[in-house]
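Hey,

Quick one before I head out. I ran the complex with S-adenosylmethionine overnight. Inputs first:
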Amino acid sequence: MNDTELLRATDRAYDMVFKGLVEFSCVKAGFELDLFNILADAGSMELEPLAEKVGGEARRLGQLLVAMEQIGLVEKDGSKWKLTEFSDTLFAKPENHPSHTMESAAHSMGFLAENYYMKLADAVRGKQKFISPVAYPPQTREENEYFETIHRRTAYFPIKILGEFAKLDGIKQMTDVGGGIGDISASLCQKFPELNVTLLNLPGAIELVNENAASKGVGDRLKGAAVDIYKEPFPEGDAVMFCRMLYPMSVQFSTMMIKKAYDAIRPGGRILILDMLICDPNKPNFDYLSHYLCGIGMDFSVLDFKKHAEYPGILEGIGFTDVTKEEKYDHVLYQAVKP
Ligand code: SAM
């Protein structure tokens, strides 16, 4: 390496060793001290009352705030501390932006950091099993709510790309396979007045889905159904949607799921596949990678990497036509028609 290359490589190595640790430690502490919500409510605060409010010592909190200032989480307003627009938008008050906030994911990652990720070498040696913050797969309403809250908190861009590009005019009955708590399908019901959705999920999630649909005014058109999407056929309808479901599945497994969709769709009906992008060589998807690493500690994991460019071949191989692709907001949406 020449010195320019060495400097760039050193930066990258420093990022790997220091950056993630410093940033996540500050974020985790911020959530555990309820610092983001307290500052969002107050607007700005002097150090002493802020320390009292978070149950901390002023000198120690002051040091945390200085570190947080360096990484863009807080800033000074005269002698007071306040949130930056960035942390106010993504870390404070989830109720203000429920489809676009990191609190739930940070809670889960904090648990996994302490109990799993820091022991990854032991997992590779077969001496550390994956441990989940709540039972996985979830059984009870509360366990399902834990995971569905994480999913719904990052639904903003999936909802946006579907709102812009989903071709659902004239579709009366759609199946949303593994549809989460229903925020995404509810947004489609609101956009397409003729649309009815059956949302397939685990038994413990169905009440949550139906209550959520009712609260959004689409309870008569969006209903949950306890169907094991891996073992049971999908109900018949005019469309099937896989939203953030197929991206971690191998070509073989995706093909099997898409074939089940084909069998359930009436002629003239449509399939929609919305995936996060996980294979950009210039932008690793750390959300997906964090889940992928969990598979190391499991006896069996279906998580995989496939290029989304495989979809047209899979879809056409099964018999779908008119394949279209939209790529936006770090997501990709494939749609096709069953002739
Ligand atoms: N589509 C939603 C979204 O984009 O936010 C949620 C995607 S989340 C990655 C996976 C979903 O599949 C969850 O709602 C989960 O409860 C559901 N799920 C997992 N295993 C399932 C199974 N065997 N049968 C039915 N649903 C399942």
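The chain has a mean pLDDT of 97.

Talk tomorrow,
K.
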